[in-house]
Amino acid sequence: MAASPPRIGTYFHVHLVSDSTGETLNALAKAAAARFEDIFPIEHIYVLIRSEKQLERALQEIESFPGIVLHTMVDMDLRTTLETRCRELDIPTIGVLDPLVVAFSRYLGAAMSKRIGAQHNLDNEYFERIEALNYAIAHDDGAAADKLRQAEIILIGVSRTSKTPTCIYLAHRGYKAANIPLVPGQSLPDTLDELTEPLVVGLIASPDRLIQIRKARLLTYNDDRPTTYTDSEAVREEIIAARRLFERKGWPVIDVTRRSIEETSAAIISLLNEKRTGRLGGI
Questions:
Q1: Which of the listed CATH numbers 3.30.750, 1.10.150, 3.40.50, 3.30.450 matches domain 10-120?
Q2: Predicted TM-score (pTM) above 0.70
Q3: What is the b/e burial string over 13-45, where b = at least 16 CB atoms within 10 angstroms of the residue's CB?
Q4: Are 199 and 154 in contact (CB under 8 A)?
Q5: Most confident region among 24-28, 121-125, 126-130 by mean pLDDT
Q6: Which of 33, 189, 241, 242 could form a disulfide with 145 if both were Cys (CB 3.0 to 4.6 A apart)?
Q7: What is residue 70's three-state secondary structure?
Q8: Which residue, among 169, 177, 183, has the nearest Cα to 201 in the 3D structure?
Q9: 187 three-state secondary structure
């Protein structure tokens, strides 16, 4: 396959220096860069930096490709070395968690822990996420529909409304989520009407968007035969029927047409918290 042509814009180097996995830095760097149009970071990631020798290699790369340096270094000696060298090179250096840690410390009256990668310890939360992921996989696309009582969230929608990836993302956040497809001519599991604990959410999208995604999916299978799966009128009828069903059941509805998986998941979590507490966005 031919390489994609480079996007026109401003490129810059951003160096992410972490004494742990670098996940926090990577997420923050992407979130910050997304605030700018036509600005594209060239990421250099250095993880598990826990010795002077490892840090020196990173500094050599930083000197060769000057840019912004973001770090989450806990070891004060390594941190001082990094910040001093970058200051000598006139390269901006930011400890991205510093403002949050300082604010927490002042409010709680507690000293910061010096444990490296403390947020990634194999605690109960970690194993809950693994259990939630296994649940999402086992209850994907209507599977094991007779065993939904353990679900916290059940997503229902027509084909290609991002049900599966949303469930996987929710599982990563620790929520047990199942999904059930709305297929023309097929009824939903009877057990849905008996459930009171799970939050049931209907997902919809604009017909034009669904048709576009469905056609792309068929192309991956080299299937270009005419089908109601991508027929404009049929898809519109699917969406109308879905809306009527959700309204009749009293299920909240989220239009995923212009939402990312993260945005959809955030809206679902907010609805779940509201269901559990009776307060808008309650926790």
A1: 3.40.50
A2: no
A3: bbbbbbbbebebbbebbeebeeeeeeeebebbe
A4: yes
A5: 24-28
A6: 189
A7: strand
A8: 177
A9: coil
